[in-house]
Amino acid sequence: MKSGAIILCAVWIGAGCGRCHAQAAQRVVFEATSPYHHIQVIDQQGLRVLSFDGSMETRMSLRDPLTGHFEYIEFFHMPWLWNSNLTNVLMVGLGGASVQRAYEHYYPQTTIDTAEIDSTVVRIAREHFGYKESSRQRVHVMDGRVYLRRTETKFDAIIMDAYAKNRYGSFIPYHLATKEFFEMARERLTTNGVVAYNVIGAFQGWRADILGSVYTTMKSVFPNVYLFPAKETLNVVIIGTKSPEKTDFNEVQRRANALVQARRVTWPAFRSRVSSFRADPPVNLHLSPVLSDDFAPVDGLLRKTGK
Questions:
Q1: What pLDDT digit, counting tens, does each position of 74-86 carry?
Q2: In whole angstroms, what is the distance from residue 296 CA to residue 145 CA?
Q3: Neighbours of 107 (CB within 10 A)
Q4: What is the pTM of this model?
Q5: Which of 3, 25, 180, 297 is the most buried (most CB within 10 A)?
């Protein structure tokens, strides 16, 4: 799904945690090497963890698979604020299927297509994280951009949580963070469609350059772009909307209340997570380049900010 020593993955949880909580009692349930990752499934302290190359990618409670996940995952429910009738969603990156489980449980009228490049990850999700394909849950074993180029389907939301790894740590695959990619994504969205994109980084300091560049690139394609920073980890989910109507904090609160009262959204933490909404851009916006297929210096940004 995504792809440290301090944990670098789809989520950054800080130096104090150690590398996958190595000091805690743990049991390796499964281990394999795919063309993309060295993969482990680890049980520890009532949680099941999916690890790529020593990082933590997915976390799931063994007692209740709908809980135990990383905080930033919950911001992938925010597209409902701009499209109150989500009927189909594309997820790029499967991992341990935290998002897929949540959408299937809380939104029974919504179908979820997933593009996952690694067939080994698909097998692990099925065998160790309870992922089940159905008429509402479909997986396509291919690169996310290739899938978008080939499909004719229009989606109400596209959720991006795909990471790879190099010597500087985890990074967004270059071809999934360019203006051309976002233009393609926009064309695959319905009228009120939304892109939700997980970025590992901070507003100032560590990886602020990457956050700023992805924001700037999305803003060059989408009329409005908003931010949902996680409190527990250094992750920010960026929302890009096709709607030209600007939204402020009071309006998203009003929409959240209406969605919950109408039982359109039944996920319990929805209103509390909406409070993280930010309409202001990153402070380094004027220094952040638009990334393109010809100019996508993510590796260079990692060299500057990954130490």
A1: 999 999 999 999 9
A2: 15
A3: 20
A4: 0.88
A5: 3
CATH T-level fold of 71-305: Rossmann fold (3.40.50)
Q: The sheet that has 47-52: what strands, in order across it? A: 27-33, 38-44, 47-52, 55-61
d(CA 67, CA 55): 20
Q: Are strands 235-241 and 224-229 parallel, antiparallel or unpaired?
A: antiparallel
How many CA within 13 A on the CB side of residue 213?
24
CB-CB contact of 114 with 100 (8 Å) = yes
Q: Which two tokens stand for residue 175?
A: 């071809």
Candidates 93, 233, 111; CA nearest to 173 is 93
Nearest to 177 by CA among 49, 2, 26: 2
The 8-class DSSP code of residue 168 comes to T
Domain range list for the chain: 15-61, 71-305
pLDDT of 305 higher than 90:
no
Query: What CATH code would you report for 15-61?
Result: 2.30.140
Token output for 42: 């680890």
Pair of tokens at residue 71: 């905080």
Q: Are 216 and 296 in contact (CB under 8 A)?
A: no
CB 168 within 8 A of CB 302: yes
Chain segment 281-302, per-residue pLDDT in tens: 998 888 889 999 987 655 555 4
The predicted-structure confidence for 188-226, as pLDDT tens digits, reads as follows 999 999 999 999 888 877 778 999 999 999 999 999 999
Report CA-CA distances (Å) from 248 to 32, 81, 244: 46, 11, 13
pLDDT at 22 over 70: no
Q: Which positions ≥6 away from 205 have C-beta within 8 Å? A: none
Which is nearest to 9 in space by CA: 122, 128, 161?
161
Cβ 221 vs Cβ 179: under 8 Å: yes
Which is it for strands 235-241 and 189-200: parallel, antiparallel or unpaired? antiparallel
